[in-house]
Design a protein that fits this description.
Elements lengths: L1 E6 L17 E6 L5 E2 L2 E2 L7 E3 L2 E3 L2 H8 L2 E5 L4 E5 L7 H20 L8 H23 L10 H33 L3 H34 L2
Helix pairs in contact: 2-3, 2-5, 3-4, 4-5
Amino acid sequence: MKKILFVSFIFLLVLSTVGWAKSETYTAYKNTFPIVVNGQEYTSDLPILNFQGRTYVPLKIVGDMLGASVKFDEQANKVLIENPAKTTSKEEFITVAKQILQNVKQRASSMDFKNTSTTEVINKLAEARKEAISDLIRIDKIKFDTNDKNYSDLFIAKNTLSSFLMQEILIDGLIADIYKLLNNKKIDEVDKVQEELEKLSEGSKVMLKYAIIAVDRLENGK
């Protein structure tokens, strides 16, 4: 490797302890092996350096190759690196949405509490809530390209499905509350919770219907 002597290479050693206000001289070596980023070989007029057994490359160039934004904040005197949010295509969203709707169907079919103890019911509802929360987190992480011609329909489908999942989680919680109240013989408090449950259940049925229609509209272009 070729030996290189250079001064204040902060633009290369962004992650080192070198400061802008302090100029120091370091001895590094030019690497001869290639750097490949996501299958693309790194090329630049600036050298790849080896300093104390570590490899250094210009951060901006590698950031561009990774699709990351690399900026220097002069006011804060620091480098900012941000990964762009990955957007989801219509086809990808439809696949995820259909999987979640299938999960909803399976959870609903498992809500048979005949000959089941209160403890078993509460545990089953807790598991259903956990699965619904997982689906909600999955759907809420999805980002769309605002320039996508299907953006409006994607936005509606995502939000109706997300709203239904939140309602499902609340409903499971209310059902569990009713079983707990009955188990503790607090009959006088059951009616109030039952009333909340009925109102929420009606709304969730409508929201689920809208979610199914929205996903179907995306899939079939209606």
